[in-house]
Write a structure and sequence with these properties.
Largest sheet: 6 strands, antiparallel
Shape: globular
Number of strands: 29
Structural class: alpha+beta
Oligomer: single chain
Helix content: 10-25%
Distance between the termini: 38 Å
Length: 472
């Protein structure tokens, strides 16, 4: 019976034992999901010495040399290993591990045209191969901080990003058996070892090294340190963007976001200025295309016939009070076949908006003054009638799609149902936690990393609830 127990648990024991000499005892390992559902995965060793192991048995498979192309291919229930297209006869159930022989030197491999440090795990899953890069959290941050904040950011902003990114990654550690974080904006952007060759990376290294191990606690608990590109001047309460109310994700003014507009280096596409303020114009045909694209990829389809109008709500969760930032919390599409609603952060996806901090205007909007001198605004006037000589006459301008309004100095043509939507907004991202351009602006104005973190995760208060200390 004892032998059976040892046999069942020996692969896991071996894998843990194997990783121990690779990392120092005090190291904290983060697992980064690089890709999944692959039929095959190729890698090359670029620097250092590596061994390829069958992690289930502890047996060596090979010693990949610098520049050699190795392939892990899924064939049926097994994984097949190929060296320069020559197959090794033995099939493996997996996982298969590429791991350094000597961790005192820099060890780098290439996968999907990106270089990464340290370990690469190929996990055999039902729907393909899962590829995971496991490495020390500080080395991981070398590939994250500049990719997220930008290597040109002031040092104090980079320090704030290092602490925030470390907190975010570690708050996700162990939540899944597969991996902790990904490589894109669904978690945080990770560009691996390649990020270490970007201009200005020395400041990133300084920011990570000088804040080594530091994370953010609120009332003694590690926070989920969400962040975004630009809040547009005001962040939001978490329950108005997602669902959970978190005490460290409260709405707070962020006037430093406007630093993105005055930043001297703007791209031809308008970044970073258009992260602070932006405009989207859609014709009716373009709106149809957007909705068709959304319906093709989503089960939450918009199928309400021809769109006639939109309704916006900015109500906070469980109250009629408006959101402090002015973010939209509900968007109704009003169509000939009914109404379709999207709420909170889900609003961004359907129309591809940068944020939910926006106003929506239609070219069909008209304001009517009634007999009580009250103004009423309408976006659809196709059923309006004209009152003349004491009785209602035919619809405005008969069957025509437009009617004309005469002003003091000109005539204006107005469609009875909108032909164009103008969406004017501010901010880029969900609007929770630290605004990255706000952090840049604060740093440029002389604030340090601690003041930046207190501003975005404790509304600027230094009341002892939020602490920045070594991860424990």
């Amino acid at each position: 019976m004892l032998k059976q127990v040892l046999f069942i648990f020996s692969p896991l024991f071996f894998l843990l034992f194997l990783l121990k000499p690779v990392f120092a005892e005090e190291s904290i390992i983060i697992r980064v999901g690089l890709a999944s559902q692959l039929n095959q995965a190729e890698f090359r060793v670029m620097q250092g010495e590596y061994q390829l192991l069958d992690a289930a048995s502890g047996l060596p498979i090979g010693l990949p040399q610098k520049g050699e192309r190795w392939t892990i291919r899924k064939e049926g229930y097994n994984l097949k290993v190929l060296k320069e297209d020559v197959a090794i006869e033995t099939p493996y159930l997996g996982p298969i591990l590429l791991t350094p022989v000597d961790n005192t030197q820099t060890n780098v491999f290439r996968f999907q045209n990106v270089q990464y440090r340290d370990n690469l795990l190929f996990q055999n899953e039902t729907n393909g191969i899962l590829v995971v890069n496991s490495l020390n959290i500080e080395k991981y941050l070398y590939g994250v901080v500049g990719s997220e904040m930008g290597t040109s950011a002031p040092l104090e902003a980079l320090k704030a990003q290092a602490i925030v990114s470390r907190s975010y990654a570690l708050s996700n550690k162990g939540k899944s058996t597969r991996f902790d974080v990904g490589i894109d904006t669904n978690t945080q952007v990770y560009k691996g070892y390649d990020a270490e060759s970007l201009p200005g990376w020395s400041n990133v290294k300084k920011a990570v090294d000088s804040t080594k191990g530091l994370v953010i606690y609120y009332n003694g608990e590690l926070i989920r340190a969400f962040f975004h590109a630009n809040s547009g001047g005001y962040t939001e309460n978490s329950e108005n963007v997602w669902n959970e109310k978190l005490p460290y994700l409260r709405a707070v003014a962020s006037p430093w976001d406007e630093y993105a507009v005055s930043y001297p280096y703007q791209t031809p596409g308008g970044w970073p200025a258009n992260s602070y303020q932006w405009e989207t114009n859609l014709t009716r045909d373009e709106l149809r295309e957007k909705i068709a694209g959304w319906n093709a990829k989503s089960s939450n389809k918009v199928e309400i016939g021809e769109i006639l109008d939109f309704n916006l709500s900015r109500n906070q969760k469980d109250t009629n009070a408006e959101t402090l930032s002015g973010r939209v919390t509900r968007l109704d599409f009003v169509g000939t076949g009914g109404i379709k609603s999207f709420t909170k952060d889900g609003i961004r996806s359907v129309l591809g908006l940068k944020s939910t901090l926006f106003d929506l205007q239609l070219d069909s909007t008209v304001t009517v003054l009634n007999g009580r001198n009250e103004k009423n605004t309408y976006n659809v006037t196709k059923d309006f009638q004209v009152l003349g000589a004491g009785k209602f006459l035919t619809n405005l301008n008969g069957p025509e799609a437009k009617y004309f309004v005469k002003g003091d100095n000109s005539n204006r043509s107005i469609p009875k149902v909108f032909e164009k939507v103008v969406i004017k907004g501010k901010g880029h991202g969900h609007g929770l936690g630290m605004s990255q351009w706000g952090a840049r602006g604060m740093a440029a104005a002389g604030y340090n990393y601690r003041e930046i973190i207190l501003q975005y995760y404790n509304q600027g208060r230094d009341d002892g609830r939020l602490t920045i200390e070594t991860y424990h």
